[in-house]
Design a protein that fits this description.
Layout (H helix, E strand, L loop, with lengths): L1 E5 L14 H14 L3 E3 L8 H5 L8 H10 L5 E2 L4 E2 L5 H14 L6 E4 L4 H6 L7 H17 L3 E4 L4 E5 L13 E4 L3 H10 L2 E3 L5 H6 L8 H17 L8 E4 L14 H14 L3 E4 L6 H16 L3
Parallel strand pairs: 1-2, 1-11, 2-3, 4-5, 5-8, 8-9, 9-10, 10-11
Antiparallel strand pairs: 6-7
Helix pairs in contact: 1-3, 1-11, 3-4, 4-6, 7-9
Length: 306
């Protein structure tokens, strides 16, 4: 089992210590030292004030921030949580991802989602109702431009004729693509395009807000994983080649008063039996010192335990 964290900007307003270069470097290097395998950032370029006040959070540009983190680490994979693919032209995503993969010596994973904030789509000039079609289109374009030359695509909103984009990523055939979402459609996209699936725990209310399927128990997760395996086998792919990443919902979060490492490890083992390969770990964002303390604690009480 491997563990990854998202830079702890969980709120609005955020703690300003977390958005300095030294703060990002401190969190990334602490995570690497503690034994974490992944580190990333969220993607909200234009959230509304209403969403922020209703429990949303601020965000840095994920590609810029991951590049900075990459410069201060040597082993951490850079795994965004997640890039909202329809927000951007796929050639721009491919270029940013290829550059990050090169600069990090092959440590980039492109984790992507369809998105759900209607007003953020409007602010970026993207048709919300087209998001699923744009997502599918982008997945194919990114794979094509990462692996081939002289690429021609008639997109929904662009015409690409004979495009060659070098330098390519150092990872061959291309950096892993993880696809987010709890729906059957998300799992079908993994079977067609992905090297990983990253669902998230969502009770019914949150699922409705995030425009996805509810997922609030390991029993549900097991059913979905079995569905994913069937889809992969039907596509002629080995399910064991696919990563699955999700949070562990037992034992609390590191840095919290109710964090219980032994119970948390029981949850990790149960998820491993279901087929999960990565755990997304939450760390506190109230201060830089608290985040670093929690990362160190998690490394010594969970990651280092055989």
């Amino acid at each position: 089992m491997r563990f990854t964290i998202t830079h702890p900007m969980h709120s609005h307003p955020y703690n300003p210590e977390l958005v300095t270069g030294s703060g990002i470097a401190a969190v990334a290097t602490a995570a690497e030292r503690a034994g974490f395998a992944g580190f990333g950032f969220t993607d909200h370029p234009a959230p509304t004030q209403r969403w922020l006040q209703a429990g949303g959070h601020d965000a840095l540009d994920p590609f810029v921030a991951m590049g900075f983190a990459a410069a201060h680490t040597s082993r951490l994979r850079l795994i965004p949580n997640v890039i909202v693919l329809p927000y951007r032209n796929p050639f721009l995503v491919a270029k940013a991802g290829a550059t990050l993969d090169l600069m990090s010596d092959g440590r980039f994973t492109l984790a992507v989602g369809v998105g759900y904030l209607k007003r953020e789509f409007a602010a970026l000039g993207v048709d919300f109702d087209e998001r699923a079609a744009l997502f599918e289109e982008s997945l194919q374009v990114i794979r094509d431009i990462w692996t081939g030359d002289d690429v021609s695509v008639e997109g929904r909103h662009f015409t690409a004729s004979g495009i060659t984009a070098h330098p390519r990523p150092v990872t061959t055939p291309h950096p892993p693509i993880w696809i987010g979402g709890n729906t059957a459609a998300a799992r079908a996209r993994v079977a067609r395009h992905g090297q990983g699936w990253c669902p998230f725990r969502a009770p019914a209310t949150l699922a409705q807000t995030a425009r996805t399927a509810a997922l609030d128990s390991n029993a549900q997760l097991a059913v979905h994983i079995e569905d994913l395996r069937r889809r992969l086998e039907s596509a002629g792919r080995d399910p064991h080649d696919i990563d699955i990443a999700i949070t562990n919902d037992v034992g609390g979060n590191p840095g919290a008063d109710d964090f219980h490492p032994e119970t948390y490890l029981d949850g990790v083992r149960e998820l491993g039996r279901l087929g999960v390969t990565w755990i997304q770990v939450g760390v506190p964002g109230d201060s830089l010192a608290h985040a670093l303390e929690a990362i160190d604690e998690f490394g010594s009480t969970v990651i280092s335990v055989p």
